[in-house]
Prior knowledge:
DUF3775 domain-containing protein, single chain, DUF3775
Amino acid sequence: MLHINPEVVCAIIEKCQEFHAKEEVSIPHENEWDGGDDWAMQMLADHADDSTLSELKYIIQDLDPSHQVELVALIWLGRGDYDASEWRDAIRDAHDSWNSRTAEYVVATPQVADYLQEGLWSLGYGCGD
């Protein structure tokens, strides 16, 4: 069961699409990351003055931590790390991984908008056209 409002997720998807569509935004593929915990912070540092990024981070940071956990679990679900029958496992693992940099992790995840949308669809939700 999804506790975060799907409309909030859809708004985040829209903002992620807007931010990632900008020409100057380059997000490395997973195999290009140096493996450090601060990869998201390093990637986003070049875009600190971007108003879309600031708004997106604010929206995510303003969420209750349990909703941030669900947002990450939706990414993992949409990415194929879990399937809908493993939703509780995804929530548990996202909860165990939660930290104060969730917004940076979400925004810096390549294809995050697609993953969030796929995650919503997997649970029977979607964004209106």
